[in-house]
Amino acid sequence: xxxxxxxxxxxxxxxxxxxxxxxxxxxxxxxxxxxxxxxxxxxxxxxxxxxxxxxxxxxxxxxxxxxxxxxxxxxxxxxxxxxxxxxxxxxxxxxxxxxxxxxxxxxxxxxxxxxxxxxxxxxxxxxxxxxxxxxxxxxxxxxxxxxxxxxxxxxxxxxxxxxxxxxxxxxxxxxxxxxxxxxxxxxxxxxxxxxxxxxxxxxxxxxxxxxxxxxxxxxxxxxxxxxxxxxxxxxxxxxxxxxxxxxxxxxxxxxxxxxxxxxxxxxxxxxxxxxxxxxxxxxxxxxxxxxxxxxxxxxxxxxxxxxxxxxxxxxxxxxxxxxxxxxxxxxxxxxxxxxxxxxxxxxxxxxxxxxxxxxxxxxxxxxxxxxxxxxxxxxxxxxxxxxxxxxxxxxxxxxxxxxxxxxxxxxxxxx
Length: 415
Ligand code: PMP
Prior knowledge:
CATH superfamily of the largest domain: Type I PLP-dependent aspartate aminotransferase-like (Major domain)
Number of helices: 14
Number of domains: 2
CATH architecture of the largest domain: 3-Layer(aba) Sandwich
Shape: globular
Structural class: alpha/beta
Largest sheet: 7 strands, mixed
Strand content: 15-25%
Radius of gyration: 22 Å
Bound molecules: 4'-deoxy-4'-aminopyridoxal-5'-phosphate
Low-confidence stretches: none
CATH topology of the largest domain: Aspartate Aminotransferase, domain 2
């Protein structure tokens, strides 16, 4: 296991890290697996699997309620994940981290607890054309209830947000802006710090969907200057059903609970319930304790490699893969932003995305085909679906070469 933090200058050797991921040794349809579906969910290193296993073997108990040793161990392990998340995003306090089941729960929490009580008819929530449904539908639901509406900042054909158009849409009716840090379809890295300076000038809070950024970029919420930051554990090499919402403490203080139940109260009587302070106010019921223990191990693992190194290596791999795919005849790419994470969406003339993905699976290649939970973006490009290859630091140039060779083979079958 690679627990010693690497220095920035040391050459990045993906093969060294691959050894930490048992699933990557699998064969699929008799071929070595090429896992290029990391934007959907990432594989888990042995240290994460061990942490979850160890928790159930040695420390399993519920959090917060028990004073016995196991209860204390479970609570400490669960709360350690909060500390690690606070460090991971550079929060100014651990109390700014709400543990959620993922980004979807985090955006819904902000929609129902922050936005809903503030919205009135004619108000707006500003999003962009490239958002995932998890950063569209929760806002629509609260808009429907209140008579507010969505305002949408456009993008260019290259898949870059038109920042001037975003800024032009900031006005007193906008009660919240919600923008993805990295597009799950295009890979575009949005200029969050610039957007946050603009929203701040207008006194509008900015929520950032960090699902696709957290596994690939160093995240510093204080430097970004945003107000809410949502992330997902399962894309970050941690267990499914884990994630977090970071929010400025004063915003969390101003928000009523979203779910009610145990764990989120100071006292309950039939006449009046007094809620716990944030972040526990937003964590009703028994959480995914083992999952968060695993997420803590995943954060340690990622930090031990170093996010600057991951980011630099993935950029090189992206450039290599992009150049290799350019040579495939009839291939159309979606997303050509100057600042991109390692996601490549594409179509090949005359071949349906699902047919290609199915044939690629026969070659041992896992890529996603479909609308990627981004119907409005698909509509913008006038296509029903794309194929998406999304890379991680454990992917290699050799896999890219075999992937391109597989595309060339299956393309002939569809011609
Ligand atoms: N936003 C983006 C950009 C995503 O890619 C995803 C996952 N595909 C989500 C939100 C939803 O995250 P979760 O899986 O945590 O619900």
